[in-house]
Specification:
about 270 residues; alpha/beta; 2 domains; about 40% helix
Length: about 270
């Protein structure tokens, strides 16, 4: 699934055809805040750029985090926000022929990945949840969203993200059952042992009693055998690409593992 023509149209629309290509959509040392003192830019143009990039995420999940981050400032965009958004275009300039690869012989094996940063938003100190789901080796779902409440610990942020991942797993489980495929104990991979222990321990602890009730539904589904939460190392945490900007080497590794490949190299 490749949108190379759409990429070219975006670059032409926003006059970035002659721009210099970059290796990643966002630098690791980039800080994006409200920038109240910064110069304003055309809001209509900025919103149009974000909308165009959001549509492109259907075949380019690797730009999802940066696009969603820039989308938070559509009400009052500044020059610093536009600069980050244009870096995404520069990244697209060098990867026009890339797309999402779904191999035809992929096995029917569903697995979910959940991850979170901690207090990544510098404005309200809320964390960002990132999840993705693979059916065999095919990426079929991805998610990057700021959490609705402020987490008091990394474990809580990871626990909330795992709940979001579990909800999506239950939906996929129902869809597969409609096709006559019954799967139980679907793996949900998390890189935080404290969050994993929270899903298995039914006792209310003083450090976790403040967590909203709706986030605890994951415990029932793990007990019922709908999904099975497991530990995964940080190096194999594919959802990491949806929670924070990454270095070039790590970004390329996760991009390839998720099946976002150069279509020209496949044929």
């Amino acid at each position: 699934m490749c949108q190379s023509k759409y990429c070219k149209d975006i670059l032409k629309k926003f006059e970035m055809e002659a721009c210099k290509a970059t290796t990643t959509p966002m630098s690791t040392n980039c800080y994006l805040g409200a920038d109240e003192a910064g110069p304003e830019v055309n809001q209509t143009m900025y919103m149009g750029l974000i909308c165009s990039l959001l549509y492109l995420t259907t075949s380019r999940p690797n730009i999802m985090f940066t696009v969603c981050l820039c989308a938070r400032f559509q009400s009052c965009p500044k020059e610093s926000h536009l600069k980050v958004a244009k870096r995404i275009l520069k990244y697209l300039k060098g990867t026009i022929s890339m797309g999402l690869w779904h191999p035809s012989l992929s096995p029917i094996h569903l697995v979910g990945f959940s991850d979170s940063d901690f207090a990544g938003c510098k404005l309200d100190r809320k964390s960002t949840s990132g999840t993705c789901h693979l059916l065999g080796s095919s990426l079929i779902s991805w998610h990057s969203k700021k959490q609705a409440c402020v987490a008091l610990s990394i474990a809580e942020a990871e626990y909330i993200a795992a709940g979001s991942c579990c909800a999506q797993i239950l939906w996929f489980k129902q869809q597969l059952e409609d096709f006559g495929l019954k799967i139980s104990k679907i793996p949900l991979l998390c890189d935080n042992t404290s969050a994993i222990n929270l899903t298995k321990n039914q006792v209310q602890h003083s450090r976790t009693k403040h967590i909203e009730i709706r986030h605890h539904f994951i415990r029932d589904h793990i007990t019922n055998g709908d999904c099975e939460i497991k530990f995964v190392s940080i190096e194999r945490q594919f959802a990491d690409i949806f929670t924070e900007p990454l270095s070039k080497d790590m970004f390329y590794y996760l991009r390839n593992e998720l099946g976002i490949l150069d279509m020209h190299a496949l044929f």
